Amino acid sequence: MTGLRKRLSEEKGFSLMPRAMAISSSSCKLPLVAVCQVTSTPDKQQNFKTCAELVREAARLGACLAFLPEAFDFIARDPAETLRLSEPLGGKLLEEYTQLARECGLWLSLGGFHERGRDWEQTQKIYNCHVLLNSKGAVVATYRKTHLCDVEIPGQGPMCESNSTMPGPSLESPVSTPAGKIGLAVCYDMRFPELSLALAQAGAEILTYPSAFGSVTGPAHWEVLLRARAIETQCYVVAAAQCGRHHEKRASYGHSMVVDPWGTVVARCSEGPGLCLAQINLNYLRQLRQHLPVFQHRRPDLYGNLGHPLS
């Protein structure tokens, strides 16, 4: 791959090497995104204050879009508390975020809102809903997590998301934003490459995986999965994560990051709350896809329509 790297570098200064976070005069027109990392608790108002502080900082630094992690609204101690704290999309908490988007003038990716859907009265279960707001505070897309995390990891404790959550019925077509076309997913979805392939073939340029990875799966799988999804789809991957100890029963890994289409981690947080910034260079993405046209080389005649485009 050294030859491809050299060839692209010689074309108009294009480089596949990791990009510095400092914004130079030559790259100031590239859209800037902010990835926020928090430690949610059962206290919804305190969680909002923490998220709002990071979003305002992102706006001050010039970001056009801020990404919040799964369960940005709260992380409860048990399924009963999760259901009690949940709200509909038209509830008080989401209204606070719509006002925040308008105040700051930037888009918000709200990954993993505990949503009481229209079937709440019948099911008494919620949806893990990824909500995308524009800079005017309008909801432009919602995606309800389709792959629920029912696992039992030694050393991390069991998780049965389906105890309180319903799986979403469908994928959401990629959405045009100031940073590029975004494909929506949530956390455990990243383990299913068919989803990311479907979003990429439907036009996604950025895949986003708001997450709350645990202390065992985090070090082992987090970065590997995110880089794999970026490489195989030739998309930017943005993953805002929960971090630290939420309460006596649960802790999260952190290490929010942005991966470019070459698979390079171009921005990351560490273990504590905060944010990181990355520029999205769609020209870089398009040239990479031109020189390494993997989607033109796929053979669905051999292995079926895995990750077929959305209708």
From TrEMBL:
Gene for this chain: NIT1
Top enzyme category: hydrolase
Family, similarity comment: Belongs to the carbon-nitrogen hydrolase superfamily. NIT1/NIT2 family.
PROSITE patterns the UniProt entry points to: CN_HYDROLASE, UPF0012
Keywords per UniProt: Hydrolase
Protein name in UniProt: Deaminated glutathione amidase
InterPro entries per record: C-N_Hydrolase, C-N_Hydrolase_sf, Nit1/2_C-N_Hydrolase, UPF0012_CS
Domain of life of the native organism: Eukaryota
Domain CN hydrolase: 30-282
PANTHER family assigned: DEAMINATED GLUTATHIONE AMIDASE, NITRILASE-RELATED
Annotated EC: 3.5.1.128
GO terms assigned for molecular function: deaminated glutathione amidase activity
